[in-house]
Each structure stands twice: as C-alpha cells, then as structure tokens.
Amino acid sequence: MRTAAALLAAFAASACTTIDTSAPAADGQISVDTLKTVTEQLSSDAFEGRAPTTPGEEKTVNLIAERFRTAGLQPGNRGSWFQDVPLVETTATPTALRIRGGQSPLDFQWRTDMVANSYQVQPSISLDNSDIVFVGYGINAPERGWNDYAGVDVRGKTVIILVNDPDYQAEGTEGPFNGRAMTYYGRWTYKYEEAARQGAAAAFIVHETEPASYGWNVVRSSWTGAQYNMDDPDNHMDQSKAIGWLTRDAAVRLFNDSGLDLDQLSQAAKQKGFRPVPLKSKASIGLTNTIKRQASKNVIGILPGSTRPNEYVIYTAHWDHLGVCDADATGDNICNGALDNATGTAGLIALAEAHVRAGRADRSIIFLAVTAEESGLLGSRYYGENPIYPLAQTVGGINMDGLNIFGNTRDFVVIGKGKSEIEDYLKRATDDLGLELKNEPTPEAGYYYRSDHFSLARFGVPMLYAEGGEDLVNGGLQAGRAATQDYRANRYHQPSDEYDPRWDWSGAVRDLQVYYRIGRELAEGTAWPNWYEGDEFRAIRDRSRAGQ
Fold first, then answer.
1. Which residues have C-beta within 8 Å of that of residue 387, sequence separation ≥ 6?
2. Superfamily of domain 3-87+294-545
3. CA within 13 Å, CB half, 235
4. DSSP 8-class letter at 272
5. pTM
6. Who's near 13: CB < 8 A, 6+ residues apart?
7. CA 301, CA 369: separation in Å to the nearest integer?
8. What confidence tens digit (pLDDT) does each residue in 453-498 have?
9. Which of 48, 114, 396, 425 shows the smallest number of beta carbons within 10 Å?
10. Strands 394-399, 411-414: pairing kind
C-alpha cells in the first residue's frame, strides 16, 4: 500500500482545507460524509482490525453490503451481496531456527532474528538437518536466460534468497529485470513459489529495508499471528515445509559461520551466470500450527448496464487488515488499517453512490470489495479464478489501495506506467483536472504486483493502479517525500494507522473524480482497451477475448 505513504503531511496543514463537492454528475459527486463515516466505522476498535474470518469481518462485510444497498446497487452474486472465499487459517508457533555444522552453533529466535510459517496445512512440521544453499535472487526465468538454481538440486534443502530483482539499484528502467522497476520475479510471493517448484524444504528471504521497501517491524507484524491461504484439498503439500524471513544481521552471522561474506555473494548474485553456493551448515526448525477452516467473503454489488449489460467495468478495493497484532508502546494491539484500506473501501462506496446518481451507463459497473489482500491477494485471486462475471467480457478496471487523506497534490502517479491502454483514459481525466501525470517515484518497490489489480491482470483484464502523487499543494515535493518516510516508519501495518478527524479529504475527492471519469468513459464507450504491445499480460488478454 503506497498511497498513504506518498501523501501524508502535517496535521496542522490539513485541518482547514475546503472541499469542493459541487462537481456535476459527469465529474462524479463524491460524498465526503461517506468517506469520513465509513472510514471511521471500519477502522474503529469495534471492528478489531478487520481480519478475515473474525467477528470483525462479519461487521465489515455487513456494513459494506448495507452501504451498497442504500447506494442503489443490486446484489452482485445471483441475488447475494457475497462471494464465499474458502480460506484456511494457520497460526504457527515456531521453535528457534537452529544452525549446526559451521564454525559454531547458532540459534535464531522467532520475531527477533527470523519469522517462519508454512503454506502446508499440518498440525506439526519438522525440518531436521537440512543442507543450506544460497540461491541468489531465487529466480528461474528461461525467457531472460537467468537461472539461480542452475547446477544444483535443492530438493529437501533450505534455500536462502535475496529480496527484489538483481538490478533493483539501477538508475533507470533498463536491465535484465527492467532495472529499477521491479518485476514479479522480485516479489517474495514468487520466490516462495519457485523454491517450492524446485523442491526446497524451506526458503528464507534475507530482509533489507531498501529492496523490501519496508522495515523489519512490518515483516514481524505481517508474519506473526494468524496467516491465511486458500483452502486446498491437498493441504498445499506441494509447498515448502517452512517459509520465512531472516534479518540482515542474522543472515550475516549465518554466512560468516560458513566462512562466507554475504555482501560479496550478494554482488555476485547480481550478475548473469551466478551459480548457487552451498553453506557448510544445516538448518532445523519445528512449527506447531493451530488450524481453522472457514469461508471469508468478498462483497459485490453491480449497477446493471442499460444497453450492454453483459459488458463490465470493475472497481476493486480490499476491506481486510491485520486484526490483532503486536502491541505498540501504549499497549494498543489492534492494527486498525484506517488508511490501509478503510479509505479505499469508503472510496468504493462513494464511487457507487456517484455512479448511481448519474444513472445507468451503457455497460454494467461492478463494485468488488475483496478479502485477504494482506494475506497475499487471496480474495481477488479467488474472484479471478472463479469470476462471477466473465473476465473476457470485463472491459477493464481500477483498484484503490488507500486514498489521499492529507490534501491535494499537483500530480497524479501511475503505478507500473506503460502497461495498458487504460492509461490513455487516465491521461484524459488528469488533463481535464489540470494534473501532471508522473511515473511512480519508487518503481523498485514493485507496487503493481502488490495489490488486488494484479489478481485480475494476471488473467488478462486491463487494470489500472494510479493515485495522487507527492507534490502536495501545501508543502510541495519536500513535504510529500518526508511524509512517505514518516508513514513507512511510524504507521504502515502498525496500530497507529488510525482514523484522525483532522484529515483533509480534498485530495481523496479529487482522486475519486479521476477514477469516476475513467470508469464512466469505459462504461459509456464501446472500446475494449488492451495491454500495450509487448506487455506481459497482452497475450493472455488476446487469448481470453478470442475465447481460447
């Protein structure tokens, strides 16, 4: 979730901004009262941090469904507001990660030195004396001539992996993995997926703040407590036994214990032709899991089209957050997720209201609030795999993962710029509103692959992720960039992400008017925007539209 980080500014500067809600219906009449009320409700302690399958979920999905109903939408799933998403919840208690066979015994402690979980659904998991292999960035990309697993069999072994892509420190976007712009190969989800395909018994990623784009505190809060995955009849037994993260300090000690230098090997791993490096030591860890199976819910409403109701435009936002998490210094242990993503959910409802006020468009418009984004985009993934409305007939859409709640900006940022023709619609909307359209300032963070639009994009649906930028009207770029650092360090995935009545909603209203214009133009038009030529999702879309 990037938006809030880019838009936080001083509270004092945000308290007195006047919000223009006089825009005509064609521009989207966005209700500030809806934004405030829904965000405050969803992020209150009464909703317990909105973790899936908890009492907080029941309150959340019922509130969204009721707001969809009163907005004037119709239930989106054959008369129901809900789509069941079968999940399995596991809460792991790991032992220390024991390292033996090197120069001296090492024991890495849970939370302090490492975090560990498992995709496998078993009450007890044991990994004993597993050989350790450093596999660089853990990438196997034949189309790029790159294989970090070349020449080694890691079946039954523990692999140590670097986060991000090999060329994430490049100045521009040229390089074997798009330079500074992260590819999916840089995401932690991919790295665990590939480790499992290679047969690794365990996979640990080395955490570093710059390439991960968040601190160890975020890893700890996100990877401890209840974890969610799709409920699979085979209990995900094709996955590695243990997955997790090591702090950089723990990784340095691990490599030193085998007489190796992590920095030197990390530099070597950036070069094509890198070969895996075995360590002298072996790894052991045990996990005890409590397991619960229960369906969570996506919430879906629809505004049927007037002339082409079987063609669809979609808006998405995730309603979930982390629930109960590590307590802060005050003892607060509820991660309320006010900005991430109560604001986006409120924006989804406000957009529904605006489109209903404007009347039915030619095409149908879907409003989808998804579950379990924080657990790996599970709700949107389930919709992509089990669409209520055909994806081949879904024209395109917009995802919202946090709104601008600290004032207007002069600019608008495209996440993953250069991907789809929906960016042409965005350009028209931002031009109309006098906004400068910019590339994202941190492409190395890989935000295009980190929220729910990606789940539909990977099935070919052109999805836009764009938001207000960093050039704050009150304070400029300096204030916006300082706010980025402040949010990352002090609020993101922490109990301090709470609603504040002093928030300035003028930027959120403006951003939602951009989203409204794009969605309305798509819904009133006849065009079928595609991915730009050469994009990774273009061929998938072409096959989908051809009925293949």
1. 394
2. Zn peptidases (3.40.630.10)
3. 12
4. T
5. 0.87
6. 406, 407, 474, 475, 479, 504
7. 9
8. 999 999 999 999 999 888 989 899 888 788 777 877 888 889 999 9
9. 48
10. unpaired
